[in-house]
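$ ./design --mode recover --in tokens.txt
reading tokens...
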């Protein structure tokens, strides 16, 4: 059986924390894994405005991903502009 690609492994790991995020109306989306091992994610739903999102990122999402995927060194949340200036 072939090893799953890193993106698939990240998605599987995120699926383990998503039920907790979704229970409060939020979610998280993988954007990219940079060459330096930093995974960029985007908060969705209520997680975008939650004052506890930083704690959730470190204690929940990052801890799970670092445990599951040794290639990841850190997880950062980034804001994606919907309509970037022209």
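writing sequence...
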């Amino acid at each position: 059986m072939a090893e799953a690609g890193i993106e698939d492994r990240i998605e599987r790991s995120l699926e383990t924390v998503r039920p907790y995020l979704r229970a409060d109306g939020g979610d998280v989306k993988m954007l990219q894994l940079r060459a330096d091992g930093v995974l960029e994610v985007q908060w969705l739903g209520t997680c975008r405005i939650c004052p506890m999102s930083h704690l959730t990122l470190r204690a929940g999402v990052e801890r799970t991903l670092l445990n599951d995927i040794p290639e990841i060194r850190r997880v950062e949340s980034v804001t994606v502009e919907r309509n970037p200036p022209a």
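exit 0
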